[in-house]
C-alpha cells in the first residue's frame, strides 16, 4: 500500500466519490488496504464514509469476483477475533454495509455478525450493522429482533439509540410501559445518514419510533 494511494482515497472520500475509489481497487486490488487504513478512526466522518465506500467497492467487485468479496468479509471477521491480536473496531459496520449492498450474495454473513452483539466493544457496530442490513433485507434480521431489542436497556446511549433505529426499520413498536423513560433520555447519539454525520438524542429516536408505529 502506498501513502499516495491512501491520500488519494482520503481525498475522494471527502468528495464522496465512491465509484472512483472502486475503480482504483478494481485496477489494483492492493488499494483495498489503503481504504482499510482509513477505517482506524471510529466515529469520524471520514471513517463512516470509508465504511460506505467499502460497501460500494464490494458491490462492484462482486460483479466480477464474488469470492474476492468473501475474502474481504473473512478478513474483517478475523480482525474481531482474539486470535488476530487486535480488534476490528469498524468491522461490524463494514460487514453490515457489504451485506446491505449485496444481500443476495452475502446474506449469510448477517447472522454471523449479529452473533457478536454480546461483545461490549463491538455492540454499537453490530446493532448499526443489523439496522443497515434490515434496510435492504429485513428478513435476514427478523429472527434476532427480540434478542437485539433487549439492548434498549444497555448502559451505552449509542447502543440504545441504534436499537431504536433498528426497531423503527423493522416496523416494531416501543413498549411504552417499560420504556417510557427513553422519551426523556437526552443522551446524544451520532447518526450517519446520506453521507453526513449528525447528532440526535435517544429521546428523539424513541419519539420517532412511537410516532411511526402509532400513525
UniProtKB/TrEMBL annotation:
The keyword Transcription regulation does not apply. InterPro entries: ARM-like (IPR011989), ARM-type_fold (IPR016024), DVU0298-like (IPR054701). It comes from the Bacteria. Gene3D superfamilies: Leucine-rich Repeat Variant (1.25.10.10). SUPFAM superfamilies: ARM repeat (SSF48371). Keywords: Lyase. Signal peptide: none annotated. The keyword Lyase applies. Pfam families: HEAT_EZ. GO terms for molecular function: lyase activity. This is PBS lyase.
